[in-house]
Amino acid sequence: MSGGLIGSTTALADRFDLALVDLDGVAYRGHEPIDGAADGLTQARARGMRLVFVTNNASREPESVADQLTDLGIPTRSGEVMTAAQAAAQLLRTRLEPGAKVLVVGGQGLVTAVRAAGYVVVDSADDEPVAVAQGFAPDLGWSDLAEAAYAVERGAWHVASNLDLSLPTARGFAPGNGSLVGAVRNATGVTPDSAGKPSPTMYRMAVERAGARETLVIGDRLDTDLAGARAGGYVGLHVLTGVSTARDDVLAAPQERPHLIGADLLSLLEPHPEPQQDAEGWWTSGRMGARVVDGVLDLGRAEPASRDEQVDRVRAACAAAWATVDAGGSLDASSVPELVVDARTS
Questions:
Q1: Would you call 278 a catalytic residue per the annotation?
Q2: Its domain of life (predicted)?
Q3: Terminus of the chain with fewer CB atoms < 10 Å: N or C?
Q4: pLDDT, tens digit, for every residue of 245-266?
Q5: SS3 sequence of 258-304
Q6: pLDDT of 4-13, one tens digit each?
Q7: Where are the domains of the chain?
């Protein structure tokens, strides 16, 4: 698969029969809806695209996630939700026999998944667990992290549901599970294994469960969602409604690059032009162009007149930057501006 942006002459909802959709920063932000999300997903389903919501959040039960999505106008069954808790439980199965003791540091979703995998859940290092399963929960405290550290220090296998350093909320970005895992790692010196994105484990589980002809991964974070798509060999769509920005796209490392870029989930209903290079070295998408000259990103003179053209400018900038870097050239990061894509107005 190409290391750059690809194109689609038809709407993505018509091309892909399965979408693996991230939650925080894509379908909602905290407990608030994201404009265009419900409409985009509803219309994509009407065109035949099936959805599985794949989240690094391990604190909640699939039923709870499905209920929240349904309340936000995205009718969802629990079987259409795949959580990092379920992936962590599958990772435990690779080394532990059923009946083994596991110290769970996290929310009810992780407790349920570990129990369902056949393990005995304990809450103290003194119970001599053979593994620690750690996931995010908003009420975790020092004592919980201390128990995890004591168990890991005594030899328990440390499994993290995910390593996201931040968590998008309605008020901004808060510490994510990776930040809490870091406290245990710093205390013990032991690096945990992780089941969540960017490992493609959850994506593969979701595809196996749903079956698919062609799968699209949709996310807002380059270092987890889109890196997982690259690692698993799936086409990845970056929507600009969450953590990673358009500027991050331009500067992305090859293993974290999206294949497609859209403003939000309504981009599922649109074709996506593939940037083209002309004889003068300009990369163009629509009427927007970009090139790199002596390591400096040049966005040309045309200013985007619409939101769609703002996205086209991002695509052209990515194509120019990535082609330069992949050919062994340099790109001065300070020459890359914040490429604003206006929020959709309801």
A1: no
A2: Bacteria
A3: C
A4: 999 999 999 999 999 999 999 9
A5: CCEEECCHHHHHCCECCCEECCCCCEEECCEEEEEECCEEECCCCCC
A6: 999 999 999 9
A7: 12-80+199-269, 85-194, 276-335
d(CA 317, CA 291): 7
Q: How confident is the model at residue 168 (pLDDT cuts 50, 70, 90)?
A: confident
* Closest C-alpha to 18, from 213, 163, 177: 213
Distances (CA, A) of 116 to 89, 99, 101, 306: 8, 11, 13, 50
Please give the angle made by the CA atoms of 29, 106 and 171, to the nearest 5 degrees: 25
The strands making up 131-134's β-sheet, listed across from edge to edge, are 120-122, 101-105, 131-134, 157-160, 193-194
Say how far apart CA 218 and CA 225 lie, in whole Å: 7
**pTM score:** 0.87
Q: Could you tell me the CATH superfamily of domain 12-80+199-269? A: HAD superfamily/HAD-like (3.40.50.1000)
Q: Which two tokens stand for residue 156?
A: 């328990």
Q: Do the domains 12-80+199-269 and 85-194 sit in the same CATH topology, yes or no?
A: yes
Catalytic residue chosen out of the listed positions 22, 220, 223, 312 = 22
| % of the chain beyond a pLDDT of 70 | 99
What is the rounded CA–CA span in Å between residue 178 and residue 182? 6
22 is catalytic: yes
Confidence of residue 345 (pLDDT cuts 50, 70, 90): low
Name the nearest CA neighbour of 264 among 171, 319, 198, 346: 346
Q: Which position among 24, 39, 223, 225 bears the catalytic label?
A: 24
Compute, in degrees rounded to 10, the torsion defined by CA atoms 344, 314, 2, 199. Answer: -60
**How many CB atoms lie under 10 A from the CB of residue 3?**
13
Band the pLDDT of 346: cuts 50, 70, 90.
Answer: low
